[in-house]
Design brief:
558 residues, alpha+beta, five-stranded mixed beta sheet, 30% helix
Length: 558
């Protein structure tokens, strides 16, 4: 096996991004999880068989969008077929993938990444937003449709626990339930290296969780010989409307244009931003009072006032996507430059997860928008108060932002241009040719080697908070069975993917919370490593069986 793995690694490094797709076919059999290559091995399934289990419609990224995950999808499909499933591998561009998996919820399994931005270092997003039964609706973050009253109770409890040790114990228990139920296979915290042109830009800041995609990098990076930074990313922006902010790449640019009361710092802690200071917390965590700065304006020159802040929070209550963020606020008072939030119940991460995530909107632009139109509203100039202001956007070509000189944290680049590429390989070529200054994507190992050998280029390493994952649509009958989901998870070659395909970039995970977030990460959850014998045993325990061709069937009594 070791000899074959070395061969696979060599081929992958030589292939580069454009050549990775299809490599799996030539190396079929290299990565099997058990000694038996077909059928049900030594596992006895159901004696009498019912209907064949439906095929798995598996949504995956194209090689151009993400060559690493595209390769993983082929490895996973190969293993799933080996344990008896039919698999329909459906390769999609990023926007189409998000629309089908998150909005339409039309899939059986979906391989996507979950961005680990600093705003998500607090466990609330991973524990509540992604897995609580209240977030299973269209566009909700609980894309598997996972519903478990035992789990919901813990997800609700942790937000009320102001004692961090007590909250940690609850978060640990929630992770154990997720590992047992496997609504998703948590594969790896990807991390890696982001490349840049060291001869053209300086002061880059590859932040935990995001690398060069971080807010702090984009206001820090400094062009050396001119006033413009050109940033490459392998997908287009879908929307700049914060009310329909679904995808991480969109949010990474929305937050440059719009400010929050508190900005999440590189260390994951909220720091005063539009707020002048830390919030005053009273009444056992039921009341938060915030004073705002008196020196801020929107990009069109209008003053940012306490009325805009109050209007914003009232507007969020009508948002189809984000109303849950503010539903715990029972009343808002304003006085002078201060705003006071009265909560219905204590909410431990209120500063980080509400005050640090709600964007401040200009009432004079959004005030006449009806609640039902919020997600579709198109502000021609996308007027916010952030350190960058909107300049121009040609969706398939580039998004141009320019520095807002009246902001208290003026960026170091006068102009920031985001350029989408067909794939990471093409973007690396553009970086080498001098057409880009930095990338927000991880190149293939061979391309990283090439960048390191170029005197004009360099790389920065970053750790990940988010992860690659496979979501199982529990709205479909065959995937509502925990035995099926657990068997499928045993078919995911996490270790081989990180070590061989990603050349060691990243860390295998079995939990929804990254080990980089040490305080909240439970290292003792049940682990699902690649093991096709264990997968078969799981299916047999669930009452399934195999026909003479090795295809998986329901038992006759199921």
């Amino acid at each position: 096996m070791g000899k074959n793995n070395t061969s696979r690694r060599t081929v992958l490094k030589g292939a580069g991004a454009a050549g990775v797709a299809g490599v799996t076919t030539g190396l079929a059999g290299c990565l099997g999880g058990g000694d038996d290559d077909s059928g049900n091995g030594d596992v006895d399934g159901a004696d009498e068989l019912g209907q064949q289990v439906p095929e798995i419609h598996f949504l995956v990224p194209t090689a151009g969008v993400n060559a690493f995950r595209n390769e993983l999808a082929s490895m996973v499909a190969e293993n799933w077929e080996e344990i008896g499933f039919e698999v329909n591998l459906d390769e999609l561009e990023f926007g189409a993938h998000v629309d089908q998996a998150v909005v339409q919820q039309d899939f059986d399994a979906s391989l996507l990444g979950w961005g680990g931005t600093p705003e998500r270092i607090d466990p609330h997003t991973f524990i509540f937003d992604m897995h609580h039964s209240s977030t299973t609706g269209e566009g909700g973050r609980n894309t598997p449709g996972y519903e478990n009253p035992e789990y919901d109770e813990l997800a609700e409890l942790q937000v009320t626990q102001t004692d961090e040790d007590e909250r940690q114990a609850t978060v640990y228990e929630a992770q154990e339930i997720l590992a047992r139920d496997q609504p998703r296979t948590y594969i790896a915290n990807e991390g890696g290296f982001h490349p840049y042109a060291s001869s053209r830009v300086e002061n880059v800041d590859a932040t935990l969780g995001e690398g060069f995609n971080s807010f702090w990098n984009m206001i820090s990076v400094t062009p050396i010989d001119d006033d413009t930074v050109r940033f490459g990313y392998p997908s287009e922006i879908i929307s700049l409307n914060p009310m329909q902010d679904l995808a991480t790449p969109d949010r990474q640019f929305v937050r440059l244009i719009y400010d929050q009361l508190y900005r999440i710092g590189p260390d994951g802690m909220p720091t005063p931003w539009v707020a002048a200071d830390e919030p005053v917390i009273e009444d056992d965590g039921m009341t938060y009072t915030v004073e705002i700065r008196d020196d801020m304006t929107f990009h069109d020159g209008e003053d940012l006032t306490i009325d805009d802040v109050e209007f914003t929070y009232e507007m969020y209550a009508d948002s189809p996507t984000y109303s849950s963020l503010v539903e715990n606020i029972s009343e808002i008072d304003t006085s002078g430059n201060e705003i006071t939030f009265h909560l219905e119940e204590p909410f431990a991460p209120f500063t980080a997860n509400v005050l640090g995530q709600v964007y401040i909107f200009p009432e004079h632009i959004w005030g006449d928008v009806e609640p039902d139109d919020l997600a579709d509203f198109e502000d021609e100039n996308w007027v916010g108060s952030g350190p960058f202001q909107f300049q121009d956007w040609e969706r398939q070509s580039e998004l141009q932002l320019r520095a807002f000189d009246d902001h208290f944290e003026t960026p170091n680049a006068d102009t920031f241009i985001r350029i989408p590429g067909a794939d990471v390989s093409q973007l690396v070529g553009d970086l080498e040719a001098g057409q880009l200054d930095m990338l927000g994507a991880v190149p293939q190992p061979a391309a990283i080697d090439r960048v390191q050998e170029d005197d004009n280029l360099d790389i920065e390493e970053f750790a990940a908070v988010g992860y690659a994952k496979i979501a199982y649509n529990m709205r479909r009958n065959h995937l509502d069975d925990v035995h099926v989901r657990r068997a499928l998870s045993y078919g995911v070659p996490k270790e081989d993917w990180v070590e061989l395909v990603r050349d060691g970039m990243g860390t295998v995970t079995h939990s929804t919370i990254s080990e980089a977030v040490e305080f909240w990460h439970n290292p003792d959850v049940e682990q699902f490593d690649e093991d096709l014998d264990a997968a078969r045993a799981e299916l047999a325990e669930g009452g399934y069986g195999w026909d003479d061709d090795g295809m998986l069937h329901y038992g006759a009594d199921q």
